[in-house]
Write a structure and sequence with these properties.
alpha+beta; two-stranded antiparallel sheet; 14 strands
Length: 659
């Protein structure tokens, strides 16, 4: 029965009265004092000599350049990618398609009880401590049990119905008061429990010691009632853990809306990614380093620079979702601590969660235990290769590519200083803490390869312990197998990237020189990456190069060198004609890999500013709907969202660059 009660968990310390259709589960605990601390800027230390001998031939000198990376990757036979990814949002390649009916979905309480928290069951928990949130070195375990810290007056900013269905949760539940209580972290239902994992960090091959889930806590592993698929749910911004160091464990509306929209946009683009169930706001105010609101020129005159001031912002909690959140840096921590027992226990768990067929092969004695771990390394290397190739396909730049942001399952994680490239620049990155552009657009494959190589070093060191008594032949075989796993990154990247390049041009066969010439031309022109490739589909059916360039005109910020572009266009159209492919088939393929709509940083800025200043969440909902169909024309949205970067956003702090 509907009843009336007073609930400070839902309304803050106010006298507001709420109508609730469920039993109130409010806690009498008082809120902790408001923590106001300045954010810091993490500076990166570029390194040139981080790769150990034995892997040196896989890192070429110089910058990545424009030319399809063919000078970087070893020439190998084509690799089948069929086993590299799974389906539905957290996977790459295919778009997310729901096959779940309403009768398969659960109400919130039943959904929570249906969770099966395998990480908590299978891995090692930290022992009891007096103050679980006290910052400290945590050793000899994989995770710490810790409950979220309550927030006042949680409210819904946005929820993803498709992500709810992916979990097996009825999307209608997102509108209930109990949903707000659970996914703000204020009250965990039976079946849910909080934990934070410990991990380290390699940055450009350099070790930075222990980090961990400093403002994120997992609360459960949802099991879909029909498919049985497992997805871990993690609350970001729900309070302090032992790994928060001296920070407050909170998140703000600005960054949470950006990550929510990016996660769902990438899922719809078919790029491997974590997903986002919801973003909730609350009434706690958080202090963060950010940029002045004024659009006047600063002393930096538009040059990228770190935030200049502390700003008080509204708080938020984001729920992100993935089959697992096991990072490279979790395994690397136990390697660096010389803890093989916990290393292999975590590796076994990663295999069971991400690559269960490897576990089956080991159990059936089709491969040895050591070979199973090598297979894990091979799959993670191929997964990273596919991921980076997909980033390049859609013009995405991660910004921060440390090993603590690299998932064993091969998905995009932790949308911080990210961006979808607008005006083409081969070295573009919005991240001000990477002035050398080590993580720039076309440098991302090399950065990922460095992560794979360092990860392989750790795997080799740990596996050497298992074969210490088996003689030189076993050691030589291990060396060769590890090398093959690292080689697999280049092979997989080359195969998938070249397939993407071919499809973006609508060709049957990849032409490396045609692609290289195109990127060189784009780099010398002020051209929008997404608009150019989308318009190219129509330009490809033009009668001559002049007509084709007219079709492409709206993709340029400044009028390009017509003569040079006519030469390239004539060559391209000649290849198209020679192949003799059906025009409709070609255009359809091009439009299936070249999105019309991406989450441009200025779009996200408009959405979060409306949410912050007016508590108007309609634009968040509008963008969520728009970006769920990024390859569709959606003509009503074209003028507003499929366009060049507006003048106000070009070079604007917090939009064109950020930290």
């Amino acid at each position: 029965k509907k009843r009336v009660h007073r609930c400070w968990m839902l309304a803050g310390r106010s006298t507001k009265t709420h109508h609730c259709c469920r039993r109130c589960r409010c806690s009498p605990r008082a809120l902790p004092p408001l923590l106001l601390v300045a954010s810091f800027v993490l500076f990166y230390f570029p390194t040139r000599s981080v790769i150990a001998a034995g892997f040196r031939r896989h890192v070429s000198r110089g910058t990545a350049g424009y030319h399809s990376f063919r000078h970087v990757w070893p020439r190998r036979s084509s690799l089948s990618m069929s086993s590299a990814r799974r389906a539905v949002g957290c996977a790459g390649g295919a778009r997310a398609v729901s096959t779940t009916s309403a009768s398969d979905l659960l109400e919130l309480e039943a959904f929570a009880k249906n969770c099966d928290n395998s990480l908590v069951r299978d891995l090692i928990e930290e022992g009891p401590v007096a103050d679980v949130r006290r910052p400290r070195e945590v050793k000899g375990c994989h995770f710490t049990r810790v409950e979220p810290e309550p927030v006042p007056s949680p409210y819904l900013i946005a929820a993803s119905p498709s992500c709810a269905e992916l979990l097996g949760l009825d999307p209608k539940e997102t509108s209930t008061a109990e949903f707000l209580s659970v996914f703000s972290g204020n009250h965990l239902l039976p079946g849910l429990t909080g934990w934070a994992t410990v991990y380290g960090c390699h940055c450009g091959g350099q070790w930075f010691g222990q980090l961990g889930d400093g403002r994120a806590m997992s609360i459960g592993e949802a099991i879909h009632p029909k498919t049985g698929h497992r997805h871990e749910m993690q609350l970001k911004g729900c309070g302090r853990t032992p790994y928060s160091r001296q920070f407050d464990g909170r998140a703000v509306v600005r960054s949470s809306i950006r990550e929510f929209l990016a996660s769902e946009a990438m899922g719809s683009l078919g790029v491997p990614t974590t997903r986002a169930l919801c973003v909730l706001g609350h009434e706690e105010k958080i202090q963060r380093a950010w940029y002045p609101e004024s659009k006047e020129k600063s002393e930096f005159a538009g040059r990228p620079h770190p935030p200049q001031m502390l700003k008080v912002e509204p708080g938020a909690v984001l729920c992100r979702v993935a089959p697992s959140f096991i990072r490279f840096a979790q395994l690397e921590l136990f390697w660096k601590r010389d803890d093989p027992e916990n290393f292999f226990k975590l590796a076994d768990h990663a295999i069971a969660r991400e690559y269960p067929w490897i576990k089956e092969k080991v159990e059936k004695k089709e491969i040895t235990r050591v070979e199973g771990y090598v297979e894990l390394l091979k799959e993670t290397a191929k997964g990273q290769a596919l991921l980076i190739a997909e980033w390049l396909r859609v013009g995405y730049v991660q910004g921060n590519m440390n090993s603590d942001n690299t998932l064993v399952g091969g998905r995009t994680l932790d949308y911080g200083p990210f961006g979808f490239m607008e005006k083409f620049d081969p070295s573009w990155s919005p991240f001000t803490s990477d002035p050398a552009k080590n993580f720039g657009f076309l440098n991302q494959p090399r950065a990922a390869l460095v992560n794979v190589i360092v990860h392989a070093q750790g795997m080799k060191a740990m596996l050497s312990r298992l074969i210490a008594d088996e003689g030189q032949d076993a050691k030589d075989k291990l060396d060769a197998d590890i090398q093959d796993a690292v080689d697999g990154f280049g092979v997989a990247f080359k195969a998938h990237h070249e397939t993407n390049c071919r499809k973006k041009l609508g060709l049957r066969k990849h032409d490396p020189s045609l692609w290289s010439e195109l990127l060189s031309l784009m780099g010398a022109s002020d051209v929008d990456f997404t608009l150019f490739f989308r318009h190219l589909a129509q330009a490809s059916v033009a009668s001559d190069p002049n007509e084709a360039l007219k079709t492409l005109a709206d993709a340029f910020y400044e009028k390009p060198d017509q003569d040079k572009w006519k030469i390239w266009m004539a060559r391209y159209m000649g290849i198209v004609k020679e192949e003799g492919r059906d025009a409709k088939e070609r255009v359809a393929e091009m439009n299936s890999v070249n999105p019309k709509y991406i989450l441009r940083n200025w779009m996200a800025t408009l959405a979060y500013e409306a949410a912050e200043e007016k508590k108007d969440y309609s634009m968040v909902a509008e963008l969520l709907t728009l970006l769920s169909r990024p390859y569709d024309d959606q003509p009503d949205a074209e003028k507003k969202w499929s366009r060049l970067t507006p003048e106000w956003a070009r070079g604007h702090p917090g939009v064109a660059f950020m930290s």
